[in-house]
Amino acid sequence: MGDAAPRRPQSSDPASIELWFDYVYLRSNPRGCLDEYVHHSGGCRSWLVVTRDTQTHEVFAVVTAREFASGRNGIET
Amino acid sequence: VTSFRLPQGGQIDRSAALGFTFDGKRFDGHPGDTLASALLANGVRLLGRSFKYHRPRGLISAGTSEPNALVELREGGRKEANTRATTIELYDGLVAKSQNRWPSLDFDLGALNSFAAPIFVAGFYYKTFMWPKSFWEKLYEPAIRRMAGLGSASREADPDTYEKCYAHCDLLVIGSGPTGLMAALAAARANARVILADEGSRFGGSLLFENEEIDGKSGLEWANGVLAELASAPNVTLLPRTTIFGWYDGNVFGAVERVNDHVAVPPPHEPRQRYWRIIAKRAVLAAGAEERPIVFGRNDVPGVMLASAVRAYLNRYAVACGRAAVVFTNNDSGYRTARDLQARGVGVEAIIDSRAEAKANAGGAPVLFGRTITGVIGGKGVSGVTLSDGTRLKCDVVAMAGGYSPIVNLTCQRGAKPRWNADIAGFVPPPTDGLFVAAGSAAGKMLLSECLADGAAAGAHDGKRPPVPRCRDETFAISPLWWVKSSTGRAFVDYQNDATADDLLLAEREGYTDVEHIKRYTTTGMATDQGKLGNVNAIAILAGAQGKTIEQVGTTTFRPFYAPVCFGVLAGPFAGRHFQPVRKSPLHEWAADLGATFVDAGLWLRSAWFPRAGEIWLASADREVRNARERVGICDVSTLGKVDVQGRDAGAFLDRLYCNTFSALAVGRARYGIMLREDGIVFDDGTTSRLAEDHFLMTTTTANAGRVMSHMEFCHQALWPDLDVTYVSVTEQWAQMAVAGPKARATMQKIVDGITLDDTTFPYLAAKEITVLGGIAARLFRISFSGEHAYELAVPADYGSMTAHAVMQAGEEFGIAPYGTEALSIMRIEKGHVAGGELNGTTTAADLGLGRMMSTKKDYIGRVMATREGLTDRHRQCLVGLRAVNKSDRIRAGSHLLKKDDTPSMANDQGYLSSVAWSPMLDRWIGLALLANGRERHGEVLTVFDGLRNRHIRGEVCDHVHYDRENTKLHA
User: Fold this and answer.
1) Is residue B386 a contact partner of residue B488, using CB atoms and an 8 Å limit?
2) What is the pLDDT of residues B631-690, one digit of tens each?
3) Which one, B67, B134, B502, B728, has least CB within 10 Å?
């Protein structure tokens, strides 16, 4: 899934389609620090957001996708 | 043939003789020999032909870097092509053949290529064979492949086995020369878990062939003492014959151990090779340094060798590479070769030293300073050299000492580039994180004392390090000479790929400035030796041509594998039927009892048809369909994905996953659902049943079960964590069987407990938790994929086979028969139900005629993107039925559809047949197709073009439901 930054648009209005294009297709692939989705598919089945340096593979932080989403939603409201 | 074996010395066992054949000719060698040393001892110098020009070639090196002496080793299923004679340990009965020659190694017609050399220059493939285009595939490529080839693979299965294993250690030491031994010793004495790996059959590295003195003993005696200590230490694992080929994330190393390549046939229960994954806390690269050739005229004539290889054959194998040697050097190490040769009675005609002066000890051999070799005389063997001052010298071996390249490969495999060190004229490893460090000559330390000290420091553990032994150092001074520009004749940079200095300059003139481009254009460094010998020379020649420094030109990318690795060991034991685990349905035993033929379907083994005596698959499937449509059939559908979904928000969750609505579904009912991807394309389909207010049971397609589960987890956890819902895959927990046909109700009525299966209590799309056979928990669904009056019955997996047998017994009086996935597929095509051929990642719900299922009253995955212009275009390909105009014509899945009189082309393409079956009910071939604007084209006659067989058939577009359009049978 890669970059965890894109947020699913709230609106289902077809007029919001530009937001949807960005959400579905735009992913950052920086050289350096990136929040990315990782699925612990062979284990607890959690989706995680791993903060990783794509160049060195150094991992700085891991939170569950649930925590990540709740955190974002919390800031928003 | 006179023997080139010296009367004494070497690490060979002269008391035993090993017989072997090369190109059908018999020779003898000794234990301790390689194929190369044994051939050389027998006076065989011509070992191969070069790739492009078919030039005669002999040994260059004595190890892994060997570019020329590639042979086909062994025969039959054990044949291994492109094996380096320098790394093959001799065994009794060894059979090897030379490669890339016809009709024989000695007389090779392909050598005519040499006369056509002007057309074989850099980029010749691109330049010469471009026109006419059609000739490439038919004429040029096959011809080139025949002429420019390596060995041929065996067409027989490999009878040997391969293993994989894991190891963890505190310190991995790669290489067992003086540096590696000291590193291993230091760590071993500090009680660290040590793995010492070396690609050779014996430990010792350079000490196996260099005359050194350490701690007052010979280098070899010192090494043997250290090895004895290491071998007796319980915390040390010794891995000889093991090549560390790659360095990966997490300090993980890949290695191949050649357990039994040194014998003809591995002993019973032993693998030929073993693949190691070594997870090391720390690792030391002590792989040493590779000697470089010098680029000069005709430097490929057999007899021109690396000086260090000459010493290796001389000292380790007691083989003289010739009778009269010339040493060509740009550094002090060449003098060592001259001394060693003279000490063993081989004449040294001269040391040609390109430098103006040197302090090294020539051991009495004449030294010609400030001169170079411009050309080699001789065809299939050296007979002399021409010097830059015009002098000619007679000799039969030329020892090249071009300087040393530290073997940095592993340290650069994760993206870092090596650094240039002008003092030693070689690339050295990049700085690392300290968990993997290079030491000794791999790190550019060129003196023995430095190597011993460096190894001890690198292996030090908990601050403990052993005392560094005393030794005597050679001198090391180099003044680079890469290429003798005044050469006469071709001066090879990459031997195996026949790339010359002129090729590099031509590529440079033609505008290829980047070293990576030049590599690919000239193929320098792209042979099986991956430029181990030639790359630094190539870089230096380019630097000269471009007026840059060597560091500015830089190296090409170092990637695993360090040395060739065979496919067998990568596959390990996972070959043939062990390729993947076999996943059996809970009804497998039942189906096997009834004589099913099974097919692989994804990970599953599924019962495909149940043949009776004399029936082929089509006859069996035909009968199974008729039986289900006319009487009653039973089919294993356990492989469908099943997901149990529970919670207060279970309905809301399903509403967001599927394009249609489930929250309004009544308890006890089932509904077909379509799931989209977020981009609006159909992802999966299946029925979902509501077992209780807060309890649903989803089904997915067999193929997508895993992906749908991951998708659900993502949607819930990452998108809507607030939903009160939980879900688990229960695919494996339930055996599920479809019972279909006019007598399905009568059959099922006999096994259910206390429920009447009429249309009031159990109507179409009913879904209930019941019991069967007097108390077995079950789930019964009145759903149909076949279009018949049908049920799906799920029971706990362990009751599956027993229940299926009971259903068979109950249906016996009605003529029940099992049907497999073939009949299932025929019936769904007859009914126009979509499956994998149509749910193929390109279709929308509307394309499949299911657009009306897309709710406009709620948010769901894919809703907005499905409204995109491109996905709603009325000219999109959509689902239709198709049948041949001529009833006896067979249509084929994958055929493309064209307007009646159009010729096949991309522009004329109208769509394709996605699924095809022989319909027993309609007595003809029928298909489902995706056709542009298809819904408005029913009745149109098209051309059905089967490009594989080049067949054109007339087909008529029709409704996708071929059979029982009114669904009278479904509701019967």
Assistant:
1) yes
2) 999 999 999 999 999 999 999 999 999 999 999 999 999 999 999 999 999 999 999 999
3) B134
Query: In this complex, which of A4, A41, A66 lies closest to B710 when CB atoms are compared?
Result: A41
Strands B924-932 and B877-884, by their bridges, are antiparallel
Question: Over the stretch B211-239, which tens digit does the pLDDT of each residue have?
Answer: 999 999 999 999 999 999 999 999 999 99
What is the least distance, in Å, from the CA of A48 to any CA of chain B? 9
Q: Residues of B with CB below 8 A from A55's CB?
A: 415
The shares of helix, strand and coil residues in chain A, as percent rounded to the nearest 5, are 30, 30, 40
Q: Which residues on A lie below 8 Å from B719 (Cβ)?
A: 8, 69
CB-CB under 8 Å, B859 with A47: no
| Backbone region of residue B92 per phi and psi (left: phi > 0; alpha: psi in -120 to 50; beta: other values) | beta
Query: In terms of pTM, does the model score above 0.90?
Result: no
- Identify which of A13, A14, A47 has the shortest CB distance to residue B713: A47
Nearest to B820 by CA among B642, B582, B599, B581: B599
Distance from CA of B675 to the nearest CA of A (A): 16
Q: Mutate which of B248, B711, B724, B864 to test chain A, going by most A C-beta atoms within 10 A? A: B864
| CB-based contact A16 B713, cutoff 8 Å | no
Q: Please answer yes or no on whether A12 and B864 come within 8 Å at the CB atom.
A: yes
The distance of A24 to chain B (nearest Cα, Å) reads 7
Residue B576 pLDDT: 86
Sorted by sequence, the CB contacts under 8 Å of residue B633 that are 6+ apart come out as: B624, B627, B739, B740, B741, B786, B816, B817, B818, B819, B823
Q: Rounded to an integer, what distance in angstroms lies between the CA atom of residue B101 and that of residue B771?
A: 75
Given a contact cutoff of 8 angstroms between Cβ atoms, the answer to whether B914 and B892 are in contact is: no
ipTM for the assembly: 0.96
Nearest residue to B332 (alpha-carbon basis) of B420, B424, B265: B424
**Among B357-361, B526-530, B853-857, B891-895, which is the least confidently predicted range?**
B526-530
